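ARCHIVE CARD
SHELF: 3
SLOT: left
DATA:
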Amino acid sequence: MYTVHREELSEMVYRSIKEMILTNQLSTGEKIVQEKIASQLGVSRSPLLAALAKLEREMLIQIVPRKGAFVRKLSVKEFVDLYEIRLRLEPLGAYEAAVRRSDKQLKELKKLLTECEKSMNKTHTGGLKKADYKFHMKIMEISENEFLYRMVSVSNMMLMSNLEGLLKTPEKSLKDHKNIFKAIAGRKGKNAEQFMYEHILESVNNLKKRENINAKD
């Protein structure tokens, strides 16, 4: 019983820290103060260390010997690589979501689109990142392609690619999301696929511009 409880506790800590990263409570490059997190979550070091080890395996944090654990800070190239993968996978998910979605799933996606819109009016960018993450992940879920969903979710590629925030204005991102939603609602697979491709491609191009600027400095 104790082993099961300990595993459940470490999973809770893992999810809590992951949520902190997603909502900007822990910023990219920030040191994770273990004593503070343990006190905040009311746990001992054992489940905390297990959670940190899992987060490191998933590349969300980096553990530096004799220095501690830090939220992973990606290079521009690493961000480009992540978005290039998303560019290949997510349009497929959008297409399949449009073809396979149920009315119930569409209502759930509409609710997340509303969350995106509401989060635009808040000063805390963590809410916008979280809303964006949930919207994209929901589309992958609605695709009912288990292999695709697991590839995207287990790798944390969406969470990691948003570590530095969105790569376009909230207004443009929301406009893209509305176009994608409309295509999925109308069961227009090709349109949903194209809108998602263009949505992510813009982020890829913005990243590449940033990479070129850094290379010149």
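SLOT: right
DATA:
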Amino acid sequence: MGIVSENEPITIVGGAHFSQELLLEALKRAPVVYTADGGANLCMQYGCQPKQVIGDLDSLSPSWRSELDPSRVIHVAEQDTTDFEKLLIRVDAPFMLAIGFMGGRIDHQMAVQTVLTAYAYRKIICVGDEDVMFVSPPEIDLPLDAGTRVSLYPMAPVQVRSTGLYWSTDGLSFAPDGQIGTSNQARGPVTLLPSAPCILVVLPKHCLDIAIDAVQAAPYWDAPI
């Protein structure tokens, strides 16, 4: 299977539990759905048929699979990538909302963070019940209210210039085994300028539309050659 390119934002769905309300919120903003393997189970339980299901299919329910046109089910047998990455390798879109990738097993969550960082040149926002998470673009403006929680988590050594944060990040060297930036707060609108594509931004879920607008408006990292 080659890369499928969509012209509009899409929703991609993973296998961690999510509510029907969260799915409906995503569909309002990105109505075309692709699922990573078992993400199709809850989608179909909630009455949403994915355009395609992609993965090693070890967690796709046989009963739900039987209701899908076989052309919509893409089996990728290799085990060197997660189902999230299998999907990203094969589907492209100008913007992606990802649900079913936050919460659940901690090892799955860590794998999602790794894949997000590896695909930092793609505009992807993960949405959970409490938070939204994305890799910061080279520069992003977030029109946040004072007091909004802003967490910055480095996936590799990085520096982040910023304005509008209660605790300034200027001059700090972030690293996953050193300085991190969780539980900061906005004084008002925030601007972030990381030195590399490896800082995760985590905001409260009520900031979803702010994050979507900011990510879509921001310049993004160059794709690897």
